[in-house]
Amino acid sequence: MTPTEAIPDIQAKQPTSAPIWPCRLHQVLKARAVRQVSYVPDAGHAILIDLLINDPDMTTNVLTTEEEGIAIATGAWLGGQRAAVLMQSSGAGNCINMLSLAVQTRTPLLLLITMRGQWGEFNPWQVLMGQATEPALRAVGVTVFHATTAEDVIATVDQAAGMAFEADQQIAVLIDQRVLGEKKW
Questions:
Q1: Which of 23-32, 88-97, 134-143 has the lowest mean pLDDT?
Q2: pLDDT class of 18 with cuts at 50, 70, 90
Q3: Which residues contact 50 (CB under 8 A, 6 or more apart)?
Q4: Is 82 helix (H, G, I), strand (E, B) or coil?
Q5: What dihedral angle (degrees, nearest 10) is formed by the CA atoms of 90, 15, 12, 56?
Q6: Helices 46-53 and 21-31 meet at what angle, rounded to 10?
Q7: What is each CA distance from 99 to 12, 32, 63, 131, in whole angstroms?
Q8: Buried (b) or exposed (e) across 117-155, using 16+ Cβ within 10 A?
C-alpha cells in the first residue's frame, strides 16, 4: 500500500466549506514520516498549518524569513528527521542563496510553495516573483513539480516526498493559485 492509499477518508470530518486537500496533504506528510515543518504564515497554507500545529507528532517552526526553513530542514535531517518548508512564491526569492546548502550537501528537501502572481492575482508586485519562482529554483538545482488541482497536490507531494527523502533530492512543489482560490483585497 502506498502512502497515498493509506490516507483515511477525512471528508466526513470537515465542514463543507473547508477544502479537503490540506487535510489530505497533512496525512501524506505523516505517511512520509515528515516530523518537522517550518513556515512563514501564509493564507494559502493556513488550514495545513493549523493541522500541523495541533498534531502532537509534528514540530512546527514559525520563521521570520523563508531561508531559515532551509537551515532548519538541514538540521532536522542531520538529526535523523524529515522536514518540509512551507512558503509563498514571493518568499522563494529569499531562499536562493540558502538553497545552495541543501543542493551542495545533497540534503533531502521538500518545499511546498503556494503560488502568487498567477490566475486572479490582484497584487501587481506579486506577479514578477510568481513568474521567476520556477526558473530561479531550477537555476540553483532544485527540481520543480506543479500541482494545478487539489488532487494534483496530494499525488504530487506524495511523489515529491518520495524523491526528496529516498533519493536525497531537493524538490519544490508549486501549488497553483487556482487551487487556493482567488484572493481578495
A1: 88-97
A2: low
A3: none
A4: strand
A5: 60
A6: 50
A7: 39, 22, 16, 19
A8: bbeebeeeebeebbebbbebbeebebbbbebbebebbbe
Residue 177 and residue 120 in contact, taking contact as beta carbons nearer than 8 Å:
yes
What rounded mean pLDDT belongs to the chain?
Answer: 86
Coil, strand or helix at 59: strand
Confidence check: pLDDT of 6 > 80: no
Give the cell for residue 134: 520556477
Between CA 83 and CA 141 the distance in angstroms is: 19
- The three-class DSSP label of residue 62 is strand
Residues 154, 124: Cα–Cα separation, whole Å: 29
What residue ranges define each of the domains in the chain, with the CATH number in brackets?
Answer: 18-180 (3.40.50.970)
Q: Which three cell numbers stand for residue 88?
A: 509563498
The C-alpha atoms of residue 37 and residue 62 are separated, in whole angstroms, by 9
CB 22 within 8 A of CB 155: no
What three-state secondary structure class fits 169?
coil
Can you give the C-alpha Rg of the chain in angstroms?
15
Q: What is the pLDDT of residue 184?
A: 61
Residue 121 pLDDT? 61
Higher pLDDT, 160 or 13: 160
Q: Look up residue 99 and give its amino acid.
A: L
